[in-house]
Structure formats: structure tokens, C-alpha cells
């Protein structure tokens, strides 16, 4: 495994690889990340992982300074998994002095997380576009847990004619249903015990849909009611939206996205499922 820290090093290494699968990450890797790494290795001629805590996707007051990091552990996991290249740049390598350009993806970035974290998806789209330009992958792998991020990146790649496939891996969950996330480490024992209610809320709405319910507001109430049954959780939003545009719908159908966000103490968690 080659650990590369500069754009020039990545471009030199990339030149000898005909096919390459890229897994962009912010590190502190878990089984969800590693499932994407496994797919990239299986489906492409070579695999690359980026580890970069991107400062431009964090708003003032968010958790940039305390975002969990453990580079030696991450590199050991990737080496054991057989990854070919790991790109671990410093912020100044990605955003040199005078850097001013950014990518705004449009309406798909506006609701849900976009409404609550202004500028977040411009930071995501910009850094992912830069990674795509630097690494030149044939396929790039993202997790379904960050469903709006996936929609934003797909739209950007489509609109800007980027010559790669965006591949989405299933959300990987703990045995009690909690979606794996690097931020789960923030949870206290009591918060961790309560956190699976997010998935129970999604599952309640999905089971209602599978039973024939199509009224989106009824599904939203099912999610909100389940969250309310768990003390100490502050619901941020529940959504039943078109799976591609993320516009709220009145009538649910296959392919619609159920999503929600909630706070447990200082920790904000998101989760989603796709209907049908």
C-alpha cells in the first residue's frame, strides 16, 4: 500500500493504473467504509482511499476540531484490506492560499441537511470534485447512509460530465439497527442505548408503507411519533421525499426516501431508508 500526501504523488501513481475505484472518506474508518473498500477492490483494477477531514463542509460551531481521527489505525485497516493507494493530504494541499472556487449543485442541495447546514454541500461538492480531478477514478464509492450527499454528488457528476460511475453501497448497521457512523463515538452510554430509535422510526414508516399506506404525512407522523417515544432525543426533521430530487411528496411510492435527523445530547445523527 502506498500512502501519498501530495497531488503530484497521486497523479504519478495513478498513471500506471488502467482502472481505479476511489472511496473518499474523512477517516476514523468503520465497517461501512470497509464494505465500500471491498467493493472497490472487487470491481476495479485497483483501489484508492482518501482520508481528509474537509474543513469547508463544516460550519462555524460544528465539530471540525473534535472530529474523531486515528490515522495509524485507519492505515493499518486499509493495508490489511489490500488497498493500493491512500491519499492523506494536508488542508493546504487541497486549498492552497488564494483558493476561491466552489461548486454549488442547486436544488437537490437545498432541503434537509442543506437547509440546516448552510454551505455544507458546497464544501462537499467542491472537495469531491477536486478528489475526482486528482485521482481520476473510474468508479467512486459512497454509502447510502449519507443519502443527500449521494444525490448531490450524482447530480454534480452528471451535470459536469465527469467520466466515472458513482456507486452507492448499502448502509451498514450495528446489530441493534444503528447506522454506523464515525460520530457514534461521541455518544454517551445512555445516548448509545437510545440511538437505535432512529432506525426504529424509519422501520415503522417503512412497515406502514409495505402494509399499503401511501399518505406521506401519515408516514412522517409514524417516524416522529416513534422518536417522541424515546426520552432525551430532539427531533430535527422527518422527511418523505422523491429519491432523486429530495422534494417532499404528498403520496409515497417505491423509490421515495424516508429520512430523519435528531440530536442526542451534543451529537447529531442522520439515517434513511429507501421505500420499495
UniProtKB/TrEMBL annotation:
It catalyses: (R)-pantoate + beta-alanine + ATP = (R)-pantothenate + AMP + diphosphate + H(+). Its main location: cytoplasm. It is found in: Cytoplasm. GO terms for cellular component: cytosol. ATP binds at residues 26-33, 143-146, 172, 180-183. The active site is at residue 33. Pathway: Cofactor biosynthesis; (R)-pantothenate biosynthesis; (R)-pantothenate from (R)-pantoate and beta-alanine: step 1/1. Its EC number is 6.3.2.1. One of its GO terms (molecular function) is ATP binding. Keywords: ATP-binding, Cytoplasm, Ligase, Nucleotide-binding, Pantothenate biosynthesis. One of its GO terms (biological process) is pantothenate biosynthetic process. Beta-alanine binds at residue 57. It comes from the Bacteria. (R)-pantoate binds at residues 57, 149. InterPro entries: Pantoate_ligase, Pantoate_ligase_C, Rossmann-like_a/b/a_fold. Belongs to the pantothenate synthetase family. The reaction proceeds by a bi uni uni bi ping pong mechanism. Homodimer. Catalyzes the condensation of pantoate with beta-alanine in an ATP-dependent reaction via a pantoyl-adenylate intermediate. This is Pantothenate synthetase. It comes from Lichenibacterium minor.
